[in-house]
Amino acid sequence: MHTSELEILTAETPAGRDALHAVMQATYHAEIDGVPPRWAGALVAAGVPVAYIVIDPARALERGGDSLPYAFIRDVATHPDYRGRGYFRALMEHSFAALRAQGLALVVTHGRHQLYRRFGFDVFTHHAGIFVTPAQIARAWGTAAPEAGAGRLIAIDEGRGFFPDLLVVRAVHAITAAECRAALLAAADAARARGLARILFEDPPAPSYGSHYPLRLAAETPFAAAARACGALVSVQGADPENGTVPDADWIKVLDVALLLRAATAGRAVERSAQAAGARAAVAFETEAGAATLECDGACVRVTDNPAPVLRWPAAALAQLITGYRSAALLAALHDTPLSGAGQALLDELFPPGWRFSRNESWVYPS
Ligand SMILES: CC(C)(COP(=O)(O)OP(=O)(O)OC[C@H]1O[C@@H](n2cnc3c(N)ncnc32)[C@H](O)[C@@H]1OP(=O)(O)O)[C@@H](O)C(=O)NCCC(=O)NCCS
Q: Which of 4-8, 220-224, 274-278, 281-285 has the lowest mean pLDDT?
């Protein structure tokens, strides 16, 4: 591949739209109407459209009290005749640079680990599943016909390609014990009516591809407790695509560590304990996406390049910290980097743990 022969054409021009159309015809069609035209791009090699990418550059991850901008790679594909020549990598690297130039520090996507780990993406979502059978529900809660309106308490996923014996309930709207009972009876009834032997409740909801990854402060719901009362297996699992039967996951990548830290700490005051007030706490990050120091003197948090004890983490570990997926102490242990007490207290206060859920496709799809 000679990079001099490569150009990117976008949906801003008729030539770009033609090139996008040509690659989509050979691969699959992707909606481009929902993104600004400059973020739907085709890679053209020596005049031939060979690959395309569609990016939504204006998403936001909710955090306690504010949100963090990110770009979402919606679709990417290379023409089957031109695969294995580095065009996907070229398009991804061009996109990372263009997004970074726009001031974006985070990119998110969904797909196979084989494709995304190699670009420095890592996981940042948990999976939540409550597994139970209609027979277990009947033993604990009886077989009464669900009350009128109980169906509204559960949202059955009518998608295709699921395990043939599985009813997938993608959301439960039950808080009180009576609502939980009604929701269980309604799901058992629906499963029996469809001849399905197992039920998976995704509760909290674990939306699939394209989710906005809402933040939850707890992984456990009242419904989970009610389901346990009939022997349900309640599972909350960190994403582990390498060991699933389906290799897909939701992925996050940091484009620039200093930019990310500034976005994640902008306007944040820190309530220091009386002892720590006025004391300097500082932590430096050194990653493949740059270096930056986070420091706090009294109540003010700043991002600088001052020297401080260094945490050598992959950049995505910082995304896992900031999104609440993993605590500073856990990340320090996982990456074998000692973290001072003052540094940990600062990171804990700025980035409290939280939960973002996405579907575990291995629970739902045969492969
Ligand atoms: C996946 C796809 C985009 C790869 O395109 P490509 O132009 O052949 O990929 P490249 O030649 O640029 O390869 C880039 C890197 O990904 C790796 N890679 C590409 N396809 C791979 C695959 N199927 N499995 C594992 N690794 C793969 C390459 O080894 C290469 O690694 P390296 O740069 O670290 O050496 C292409 O096969 C495709 O369009 N598939 C169908 C659509 C699709 O799956 N899109 C992804 C949606 S999540």
A: 274-278
Q: Whose CA is nearest to atom 48 of ligand 1?
A: 111
Burial pattern 5-19, b for ≥16 Cβ within 10 A else e, equals ebebbbbeeeebbeb
Q: Which of 20, 75, 83, 109 best tests ligand 1's pocket when mutated (most atoms within 8 Å of CB)?
A: 83
Ligand 1 within 6 A of CB of 37 = no
Q: Which of 78, 248, 253, 361 to mutate to test the pocket of ligand 1 (most atoms within 8 A of CB)?
A: 78
Return the structure tokens found at 218.
Answer: 């707890």
Q: Specify the pTM.
A: 0.95
CA 295 to chain centre: 28
CB 155 within 8 A of CB 167: no
Tokens 């260094």 sit on residue: 310
79 alpha carbon to ligand 1 midpoint, in Å?
Answer: 11
Which residue of 91, 115, 121, 242 sits with most ligand 1 atoms within 8 Å of its CB, as the best mutation to test the pocket? 115
Convert the pLDDT of each residue in 37-90 to its tens digit.
Answer: 999 999 999 999 999 999 999 999 998 888 999 999 999 999 999 999 999 999
Q: Which has the closest alpha carbon to 245: 112, 75, 108, 110?
A: 112
In the chain, % of residues over pLDDT 90: 86
- For residue 93 and ligand 1, the question of a CB distance below 6 A is answered with no
Residue owning the nearest CA to atom 14 of ligand 1: 89
Q: Which residues of 42-54 are buried (b: 16+ CB within 10 A; e: fewer)?
A: bbbbeeebbbbbb
Reported as a single tens digit per residue, the pLDDT across 299-323 is: 789 999 999 999 999 999 999 999 9
Note the pLDDT of residue 278.
53
Backbone region of residue 287 per phi and psi (left: phi > 0; alpha: psi in -120 to 50; beta: other values): beta
